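Q: Given only this backbone (226 positions), what sequence would you predict?
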């Protein structure tokens, strides 16, 4: 009986040793937060996330070559379209100053632009607005109205009129000048001029047109270098 009790105690002791040896003592950590809880990881308070620096693109400045040559004048002989005729007007730039050529060319860039009362931009011009805009591109100050423009410079005789001169009209039965254009070509019995017409916008017309022949008032040279 006593032997049996000792045997049972021994068996119990062996079982206790077995279960104690099989119990896991390791802890599986799957996150930084868990490791921090276990004292195995400490987040640095001074650590700042730094984004990788992007490589800066190398900027190469364009350097114009030095040259002692004087820039050549552009050939600005222009083919200008008239809204009234199917033919094109070819403006011959022989024997005229470079400024005159540039003024005519600048005005002609707006052929086909719509008429707009009070307009002084390519969004729309009235007659004096076109002249005002064209001269302003070359830093030449002229009045805003056609009547005031007619008081500038020198009034010319018909045989003195040249390209670049301003040509004035009294239209719609007016007793004062109310319309202006710029002369682009002078022929024997005809003057062609660019202007902004209330009916067709910016176009080239001729004094051969009975309307403009009848309403012609005068022509002025408003800039001395012409």
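A: Predicted residues:
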């Amino acid at each position: 009986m006593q032997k049996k009790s000792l045997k049972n105690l021994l068996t119990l002791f062996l079982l206790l040793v077995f279960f104690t040896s099989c119990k896991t003592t390791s802890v599986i950590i799957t996150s930084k937060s868990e490791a921090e809880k276990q004292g195995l990881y400490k987040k640095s308070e001074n650590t700042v996330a730094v984004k990788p620096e992007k490589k800066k693109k190398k900027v190469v400045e364009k350097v114009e070559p030095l040259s002692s040559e004087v820039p050549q004048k552009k050939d600005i002989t222009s083919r200008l379209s008239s809204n009234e005729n199917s033919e094109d007007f070819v403006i011959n730039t022989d024997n005229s100053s470079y400024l005159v050529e540039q003024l005519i060319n600048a005005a002609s860039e707006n052929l086909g632009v719509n008429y707009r009362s009070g307009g002084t931009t390519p969004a729309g011009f009235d007659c004096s607005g076109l002249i005002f805009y064209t001269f302003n591109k070359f830093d030449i100050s002229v009045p805003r109205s056609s009547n005031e423009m007619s008081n500038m410079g020198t009034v010319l005789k018909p045989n003195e009129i040249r390209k670049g001169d301003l040509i004035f009209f009294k239209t719609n039965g007016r007793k004062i000048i109310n319309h202006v254009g710029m002369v682009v070509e002078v022929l024997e019995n005809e003057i062609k001029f660019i202007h902004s017409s209330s009916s067709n916008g910016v176009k080239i017309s001729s004094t051969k047109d009975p309307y403009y022949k009848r309403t012609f008032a005068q022509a002025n040279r408003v800039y001395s270098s012409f």
